[in-house]
Design a protein that fits this description.
Its EC number is 2.4.2.1, 2.4.2.2. The protein has 106 residues and is mainly β. It contains no helices and ten strands.
């Protein structure tokens, strides 16, 4: 999806790793949330409190979830992270992403 309608956007940035990862929260009328952000090159570790869908819009990165093998996304792709897990990222070029916060049924 490249465009959202009828949403509220929190203008306060979510800033991580000294500004190398930033995002803005988008809230939908049904209560669901997404974040739209940018990651600069670097190595990062994140933790989840609920299931997440990471939709990479542009850029090159590698990711590792649940101790699995490293996987690479070039230009665009999607990966999922279970609730209450951590994941590792190696960002090789500027990455444009959309993170969706999912329920366990999604």
């Amino acid at each position: 999806m490249t465009q959202f309608t009828n949403v509220n956007i929190n203008t306060k940035a979510n800033i991580y790793f000294d500004g190398k990862v930033t995002s803005r929260t988008v809230e939908f009328q049904d209560g669901t949330r997404k974040t739209l952000g940018i990651m600069l090159p670097g190595d990062y570790e994140f933790s989840t409190s609920q299931k997440e869908e990471m939709d990479i819009q542009a850029g090159i990165l590698e990711y590792k979830v649940n101790g699995q093998e490293w996987k690479k996304i070039e230009n665009s792709g999607v990966f999922y992270v279970p609730a209450n897990e951590s994941f590792l990222l190696k960002v090789h070029s500027v990455v444009d992403y959309c993170c969706s916060y999912l329920t366990e049924e999604d």
